[in-house]
Design brief:
It contains eleven helices and 14 strands. It is an alpha/beta fold. The strands form four sheets. A seven-stranded parallel beta sheet has the order 3-2-1-4-5-6-11, with helices on both faces. Helix 2 (57-67) packs across helix 4 and helix 10 packs across helix 11.
């Protein structure tokens, strides 16, 4: 199997998927993006783009046939924790139903290699230790539940249909492309780092820290942040053994080190040169206190270790991206 084969990237016009496409190209593969552009951005795509929904089996089947797809990277999903708790049907239809449609089309096309974008949210509540893959999965929000359901589906597909499938459980994706070409850009931004930076730029006036009464040193929730460029590299690292017959498995992608919300805001303040104004609000339903990965299995099996996930690089690349995307308000905010 040569590295010039075509790889379908579902959700390839999104934040993480678009970075994965760049990593695939650099490794000699041909990414083919499949995205309905609901949240993705056409401007992020330089590869062949098929605009379609995962539930549309006819368009999927034509795509597999036209490009002779040899493997799939599956990023397409609804991914907002808070929204998943109030609109669970959307998440089950889109995430679980969409994946079933994709898997059925893959079987029909004779393609049985998949790298799946899973999440640390499958673990649910956790203690203060870095979580290994053997930690019991008990998601506490609908988003995490759909991802865990898909992992269970893939385990069955391995046994019944001979699929090779890696489930990459990553924690908090963050940062932006070092060249400034792509980064986090959403109509409804919910993530901590981009919301804080948009607040500094004058785009948001309602930035809040949700909960300062967690059982942590400073009272705010702790998360493991991994740079999006590292995530992309990990997906390529998982693809290579699949092409040589590996059956896959579940692996954490993280750094093994957690940062609190307050620590993240301090790092952003250092980068931007000013404090992030905020208010304290109650905890959100579905948010665990502590979520940090034990990344040793990915290091041993996939030979993957993050290279860009120090906090300075994460905040530096993110701030550069946000100033590029929102230059006028960034300048105005700096003058105010």
């Amino acid at each position: 199997m040569t590295e010039s084969c075509a790889i379908l990237v579902t959700g390839g016009a999104g934040y993480i998927g678009s970075h994965a496409c760049r990593a695939l190209q650099a490794a000699g593969y041909q990414p083919v993006v499949y995205d309905n552009l609901t949240t993705g951005h056409k401007s992020f795509v330089s590869e062949p783009l098929v605009v379609g929904d995962l539930l549309d089996r006819a368009v999927l089947a034509r795509t597999f046939a036209q490009y002779k797809i040899q493997a799939v990277m599956h990023f397409a999903a609804a991914s907002l924790v808070g929204e998943s708790m109030i609109e669970p049907e959307k998440y089950y239809v889109n995430n679980v139903g969409g994946t079933l449609s994709l898997l059925g089309t893959m079987r029909e096309a004779g393609c049985t290699r998949l790298v799946f974008s899973s999440t640390g949210a499958v673990y649910g509540h956790a203690d203060s230790q870095a979580l290994p893959e053997t930690y019991p999965c008990a998601p506490i929000n609908t988003y995490g539940a759909t991802k865990w359901m898909i992992e269970r589906m893939l385990a069955d597909y391995r046994e019944a249909y001979g699929f090779g499938a890696f489930c990459l459980r990553y924690f908090n994706a963050s940062g932006a492309d070092a060249g400034g070409g792509i980064g986090e850009l959403r109509d409804n931004e919910t993530h901590l780092i981009p919301r804080a930076m948009m607040t500094l730029q004058g785009y948001l006036s309602d930035f809040a820290v949700f909960g300062d009464d967690y059982d942590t040193p400073d009272g705010t929730a702790i998360r493991d942040y991994i740079h999006v460029t590292d995530l992309a590299a990990a997906h390529v690292a998982a693809l290579k053994p699949l092409m040589h017959g590996h059956r896959g498995g579940a692996f954490n992608l993280g750094t093994g080190k957690g940062f609190s919300v307050r620590e993240i805001l301090k790092a952003i303040a250092v980068e931007a040169g000013r404090e992030v104004p905020h208010v304290i609000k109650p905890r959100r339903v579905g948010d665990p206190t502590y979520l940090v990965a034990d990344p040793s299995a990915a290091r041993e099996v996939l030979k993957f270790s993050p290279k860009h996930s120090d906090l300075a690089t994460i905040t530096g690349t993110a701030w550069a991206w946000h100033q590029k995307v929102h230059p006028k308000k960034a300048v105005q905010a700096a003058l105010d």
